[in-house]
Structure formats: C-alpha cells, structure tokens
Protein 1
Amino acid sequence: MLKLELELSAIDYEALIEKVLPLVGDKLENQSVGKLLGSGASAAMAKAALSMMSQEKKNRMAAGLLNDNADKIAAAIESVAAKNGINCRVRGMHAKAED
C-alpha cells in the first residue's frame, strides 16, 4: 500500500463555484451559499456570499464537499489511472481544512 498526501492552496473559489455549483447545490443547503441558491439566487450572488466568507470557512466548506463526494472522486482517480495503464484502488480519502 502507498499513502499519498496532497495539499491544495491558492484555490480560486470563484472559478470553482461556476464549475461545481450546478453539481453540488443541494449539498450546500445548510450553508449560506446553499440557502441563497435554494431561494433562486444566481451564481453571481453565490460568489458574492463566498467573497464575504473567511478563508477558513471556505476551506471547511470545500473539505466537506470533497469528503461528501469521496467515493466519486476515488472512482475518477481509479478511472484516470486505468486509462493510463495503471490499475489501482483508492482505499480511502479524507479532506481536512487547515490554516
């Protein structure tokens, strides 16, 4: 077994929200961005809400979304690896927000 650790920084949350929002809007219903979307707000309004959040809160929200979708992400990693001739299984994945 090989354990791989990946750190992400300098995340462009505005660009990310345009790509991810249509896919995860329902997952955000208990968070301020999700409440805006549930009331019919546009992605521009969601971006405005994100701009008012602290970096720590954005990171926690992103980590939660990654953890909620860990199975799908693992399947995508396995698929990309297989397409490149590398057969493997992702046994676990967990995102944690850090300062």
Note: The chain has a mean pLDDT of 78.
Protein 2
Amino acid sequence: MKRFFLIILFFLGFLNSFVAQKKAYDSTYYTKYKDRLIISIYQSYRNYSMDVAQKLTKDTLGTSKIGYVAEANLISGFEINYDKFNISVGYKSSPPKDQLKKGDTKYKNFALNIGGNRWIIENSYRSYQGFYNKNTVNYDTTFRRTGVYDQNPTLRSEAYKTKFLFFTNSNKFSFKSGYSCSYRQLRSAFSFVLSANIYYNRLNADSSFIPYPIRTYYDNHQSINGLNVFAFSVYGGGSFNLVLWKAFFMNLTLIIGPEQQWRTYRYLSNYPTQDLFYSSISGDFRGSMGLNFKKFFVLVSGTSDFSWYNGNSMEYLSKYGSINFSLGYRFRMKPGKLYRKFQESKVYKRF
C-alpha cells in the first residue's frame, strides 16, 4: 500500500513538471477544429467476457473453469464533438441469431469526455445483463447434442469509470485525431502517456455465479452472487500517430500499470460477506486507422482493456474489447458569446 502511494506521489510530481511547461502547438503537425460541430455515426462489434477459476480443488481437466460471455456484439450509436467536449451513446442494434442457445443480453453504454489535446478526462458507464458460459461443454454431456449453453439471465455487470490521460508531447501530437477526429494530425508524431484510472464495478445475480454441476469445486464460495470492486490505478505508456499524405493515419496506444482494489464478496448462504484489499494490474490498449480530410473522415478503431481480480480461493479476469467503424462530418458552427468568454478563461486554457 505504501509503495503504491509513493507511485502516486511520483506520478503527480512528474505530471506537475509537464503542466508547468505548456507550449504553443505546432500547426505544421496538426490542425485544431474549435469552431466545428462534428457529428458521426458508428457501427461497433463489442465483446465482454469474464473468466472465473477456483484454486480450492485440484482440477487437471479444467472442468470448473467458467467463461461467461455477454451476447451483445453488434452495437449502433452516434457521437457528437464540439471543441473540447464529446458525448457518445450506443445501443444494441440487433438480437443474436442463436438467442435460444446463448440467451439474450441487455446492454447500455454512455460516455462523456472532456478535454483538449493536452489532457482528457474520459467518463463512461457500461451495463451488461445476461451471460452464457462458453465452457458448458466441460461439464454438460448433452451440449454436443443440443448446442445449448448454460445461461445466467440475471447476471449483471455494471461499470462506472473515469480515466485521466495526459500527453507529454501535446504541442506536436494529437491523440484525438485518431478517435474523435476533433483534431487532424498532419505529420507523424509520438507522445508518452500518463494516466490515472478510477472505477466502480458491480457484479451481481439472483442466483449463484457458479453453475450448479460444478459448485462443489468452489467449496464455501459456491453460493457467491455478488462482487463489488472499487479500484484506482496509475498507468504509463505511449501513443504513436503515423500519417501518410496528410490524410491516411494509424494510431497505436499502449498503457499499463499497478492497480489497488477494494473488493466486497457477497453470498446467498450463511457464508459471511468478505471485504478485502488487493494489489493487481490493469491495462488499456487502443488502435485506429482511417482517412481524415478537412471536413469528412472515416475511421476504424479498436479498444481493449482488462481488470484482474486475483485472490487466494478464486480469480476473475474481466475483458472488454470493441472494434468501431465511424463516418463523420465537420459542420462550421461559430461559438456563441458566452462560449467565447469561456474559451478566453484561465480554466479553458488549462485544457
């Protein structure tokens, strides 16, 4: 715990040294769009899964391993950008073709991002309800005949997340040019990335997480039906924009770091609720490519993040991934009088 707080202090000191060295951006490297309303629509393929494993009973065949998957893959949505503000809303666009075999997942997603080219605060909410176990074949002898997966329709995962991203080379590098396209990178550039992440993840169900045929492997934990996690992490990494012909671009971003987790395990039986503290790791990996012209842009982007909840008796690995296809256009929209005053304020200039 002390070591983690030392990391935080080092992070804040390192960040403060860069904040004090703000430089004017180099217009030969990227273009700003402060007076454009940017509207885009997207189609997204998303995957959310939770791997659960026990450490109590010897299981050489892996029969007790659980691989929960949310069947909410195709998502449609829209995104609106203006200056340093971004809002995105997504919804499930079509039911699964094999709903009888895998069940149905109720899905919600909302994101609100604030910040400019120097730093960004990303706020998001994700909710999935209804999962199937991809490892059903390990314990269900009828699966090869029926193809029906073990399902838990009441299992729900909710995540509230806030992520802070700081870019050390903001005078030449534009992260947003590869994702929201509120900037346009003209020349290739690299930046180190400093990040802090705070989130609350709630996992609960009306019944146990553990499928009935394999509950004995989990001993006293076989009736678990709730896991709440509050976590804070500090990341470090880098991001690179490759630009060709001032229009075609590719971005790759990798950040990873230590995470401190405060967990609460809840059970249906008389087994007591457990409040535990753990140190772990988590990471964020992103990539994008596309064409970014003066008014029109098209891009394909991918995001992946994970959280690892390791313990003495059980472990959970939460994984999220998405691939997005977006089409967007920049409409000229001059800021109003009040917004112009805001743009001239000290608060705005710190963005």
Note: Confidence is low (pLDDT under 50) at residues 4-20.
